[in-house]
Design a protein that fits this description.
Blueprint lengths: L1 H4 L3 H25 L14 H15 L9
């Protein structure tokens, strides 16, 4: 994590790819189940600054439906 926060391109790239993969997974579940809200939580939440935006971008760009309270 520290390498990514310090600007290491390879480390940052790993978080970008992970965020996109998580976002695609969430988008798939939203499209299949259609929940009103999606909450992402857990031990990795302290790294949200590194991949949170990539999760949101991948999810919102691929969802055929969006949770009503998407943020």
């Amino acid at each position: 994590m520290q390498f990514a926060r310090d600007g290491d391109r390879a480390a940052r790239g790993a978080f970008v790819r992970a965020g996109r993969a998580i976002g695609v997974g969430i988008a798939t579940l939203v499209s299949l189940v259609g929940p009103e809200r999606v909450v992402v939580t857990g031990e990795g939440l302290d790294t949200c600054d590194l991949f949170g935006a990539h999760i949101k971008e991948a999810c919102t760009s691929r969802c055929s439906r969006r949770p009503r309270h998407a943020r």
